[in-house]
Amino acid sequence: MKQQILLASMVALLTPAPVLAQEDFRVGMVTDVGGIDDKSFNQGAWEGIQAWGEEHGKTEGQDFTYLESHSDSDFVTNLNNAVQANFDIIYAIGYKLQPSLEQVAEQNPEQYFGIVDGVVDMPNVVSLNFKDHEAAFLAGVAAANSTEKDKIGFISGVEGVVIDRFEAGFVAGVKAVAPDKEVVVEYAGAFNDPTKGKQIASAMYSQDIDLIYHASGPTGNGVFSEAKDLITADPERQLWVIGVDRDQTDEGAFEVNGEARNVTLTSSLKNTGNVVRNFSNQMMETGFEAGNIVSDLANEGVGLAEGQLSEETLALVEEYKEKIISGEIVVPEKPE
C-alpha cells in the first residue's frame, strides 16, 4: 500500500499541472526597464502575447496585459501585482528580473512563471533562452563583408552573461570573414539611455567607423539617431547600424533632401514573441512544465534579417549559418 502511495506521488510530480479551460486562460507580462515600446525584445515578447490573444479571441487588458518596469526597483512590485491579478502564467522579460523572479516564485509556489533570458531551476518556472551568439555571429559576418573600413563598432547596455554572448558571437563572426578588422566595443552602462548611445556612436563614427552593431535596447535608439543626423549633415556619407532582437528597419528610415534613406543594414533576430506565444499555447493544451527551452538557428529561434544586405553577403551569411547548424562552427559564448 505504501509503495502504491509513493508511486502515485511520483507520478503526480512528473505530470504537468492541469490548467484552466482555454476560455479562462490569462497571461501577464512584466517588462525590463527598456519598456514595452523598446523596439526590441520587450516589444517583441508583447507582440507575441498580443498574437496569442488574437489567436484565441482574448481581450487585451482583461485576458492578457503587461506591467511596465521603469527601474530595477519596480521588478518585485510588478511581479507581485501580477500574482495578485491571478494570471495563469506571468512572463518576466529579461535576465535583470531573475533575482526578483526567484524571490517572488519561491513565495508563490502555486503561481506559474516564465523568464526570458534567464535560467531559474524551480518547479513553477520555465526558462526561455536563446543562442543569441549564433545570430550575432551572422551579424558579424554581414558586417565584415559590408563595411569599407578597418574597424567596426559594437555598442551594448550593461555587461552580463546574455550580452557576453552578443559580443563574443559578433566578434567571432567578424574575425571569421576578416581576421584583420578591429571590433571596437563600448558599453553604455544602461539599456534605456538613448542619449548615451548617441554619444558613443558619435565617437565611433568619428573614428573612421562606418558600421555599428548595437545590442542595447532603447539605448540603441541613440545610435540610429546619430547615424541619421550625420548623414543629414553630409548626405554623401554612408553609415550603417545593425539592429537587434527584431527587424529594426523602421528605426533606420528617414529622408534627406526629399530622398528616402535607411541606415539599418540588417538586424539580428530573437523570436521572443514566437517562443512566448508557443509556450502559452502548449500550457493551455497540456499543462505547465518547468525546464529550460533553448531556441537557436536550427529551430529558427534566432536569425538574421535580410535587410539591405547584398546578394553576395546574403549567400555568405547562409553559408556560415549552415556551418553553425551542422556543428562545423561552434560559436563562442564569452568574449576572449
From TrEMBL:
Principal subcellular localisation of the protein: membrane
GO cellular component: a single term: plasma membrane
ABC transporter substrate-binding protein PnrA-like domain boundaries: 27-333
Keywords recorded for this protein, A-Z: Cell membrane, Lipoprotein, Membrane, Signal
Signal peptide: 1-21
Topological category with respect to the lipid bilayer: Lipid-anchor
Compartment annotation: Cell membrane
Pfam family, one: Bmp
Family of the protein in this entry: Belongs to the BMP lipoprotein family.
Protein name: BMP family ABC transporter substrate-binding protein
